[in-house]
Amino acid sequence: MTIICRCEDVSEEEIMKAIEEGCRTLDELKHRLRLGMGPCQGRTCLPLAARILARETGQTMADVQMQTSRPPAVPVALGLLAGDSRD
Amino acid sequence: MIAVIERADVAIVGGGINGCALAYELSRRGAEVAVVERRSLTSGATGRCGAGVRQQWSARENVTLAMQSVEIFEQLSQDLGADIGFRQGGYLIAVHDEEDLRQAEKNVAMQRSLGLEVDILSPHEVTEIVPILDVEGMRAIGATFCPTDGHADPFKTTYAYAEAARRQGAHFYRFTTVTDILTDQGSVTGVRTDRGDLSAPVVVNAAGAWSKQIAAMAGVEVPNVPYKKEIIVTERMARVFDAMVISFRDGIYFSQQDEGQVLGGIPPPETVTGYHLEPTFSFLQHMAATLARYAPVLSHINVIRQWTGFYDVTPDARPILGPVEGLEGFIQCHGFSGHGFMLAPMVARLLADLIVDGAGSPILESLNLARFEDMDIEQEHSVVG
């Protein structure tokens, strides 16, 4: 078994099964498997998952739509963000 | 590209929780259903929401509707044959001062008269239920608490509904855009999509924040306005609390999810209407500061992501459900104003009964679009986020 998403413990087999069941985008894989929703926010797994998706669905890597990047770019402590506020 | 089927009994526009729940309830009653979704299922407000399930409302009808929804939620994993992640950790609603307390007493009396288990808590009882709360920091004097409120996983719930509907014969067309609502002499006749026409004598508008555009395609004007809302999520930590904590005064809500992350939102300092989805730093700061004030121990926890979505808001913050005058077969299911997930199970049953059996109900009557014409509106005040 090959682990693709280390944060959420998602294997290549699980991704292939989800694709077989109809998932066609990285977003759909995320919805079904929590792929990329852990602490690293997909930095490790998304390029790998995109490659699997392209291979299994006959798309090129350019066809696979990457997910929207969301802030913060790196994890930030809540207190640090709160400290700068006027609340 | 596969074409859509040529005809169905009901065409549903929108593959969020409401579209999928309705597809399940309709197909269970024997109707042939086709759901048309522009992107993937849950891609709108459903997949971006806080997924709380609350029964503590100020309007009697909303309490009834929410209680009926919870009754369905309690059985839903079993009914759909898949875990939806429903957990009843309760909702703890902050009471900030004497005026709040009077409103809380009024709400609690009404809610109890309907059979809801709900209590007013002292500051000490508040921290017994959620130990990380700083009641002084919250500027609170107590709270109301309903232990049967809770939350479910919006992805698991929607996909469980969709899978069960599919097993009952419902068709789902993702990545398919509705470009027009087809009508003939005062009746809908179907939808036009970028993958062909689909004829259906009933078309349901369950397009969330885009329902206004779908309605306009049929020449129907609805008063909904999309409001941008923002959410943060933290890294995972050991389970420390089960309740959803909310405050109507601060507009904040937060809870700890199954996996251990804390997820919450608050109205952004700048109100943004229209179709804008950019996350803002001012929200992030405001949310972090308020959350740290409510639960100082969370200051050490990392925020890993913020994102945005829409509330599909109506003038009275209550949904628009049921038929419209002048266009036979055009059914509205939108305007949930931030509460679409929690109400969906019961709303789907009410609308399925209406569509299949023609069975109306007082609650559907009261939520009809026509209420905005005579302006006889009961405003729901208990809104957060």
What does this structure look like?
The complex is a heterodimer of chains A (87) and B (385). Chain A has 4 helices and 3 strands. Chain A has 87 residues and is mainly alpha-helical. Chain A has one domain (3-83): BFD-like [2Fe-2S]-binding domain (Arc Repressor Mutant, subunit A). In chain A, strands 1-2 form a two-stranded antiparallel ribbon. In chain A, strand 1 and strand 2 (10-11) form a beta hairpin. In chain A, helix 1 crosses helix 3 (45-57). The longest helix of chain A has 13 residues, at 45-57. The mean pLDDT of chain A is 90. With 385 residues, chain B is of the alpha/beta class. In chain B, 31% of the residues lie in helices and 26% in strands. The mean pLDDT of chain B is 95. Chain B has 10 helices and 19 strands. In chain B, strands 5-6-4-14-15-16-13-17 form an 8-stranded mixed beta sheet. In chain B, strands 8-2-1-12-19-18 form a 6-stranded mixed beta sheet. Chain B folds into 2 domains: 10-48 and 155-223 and 316-374, 3-Layer(bba) Sandwich (FAD/NAD(P)-binding domain); 91-147 and 225-313, D-Amino Acid Oxidase, Chain A, domain 2. In chain B, helix 1 packs parallel to helix 8 (340-357) and helix 2 crosses helix 8 (340-357). In chain B, strand 14 and strand 15 (253-256) form a beta hairpin. Chain A binds chain B through residues 24-25, 27-28, 31-32, 34, 38-39, 41, 70-72, 75-79, 81-82, 84-85, 87, and chain B through 39-43, 47, 155, 159, 174-175, 234-236, 259, 279, 281, 284-286, 288-293, 298-307. Strand 3 of chain A pairs antiparallel with strand 17 of chain B.
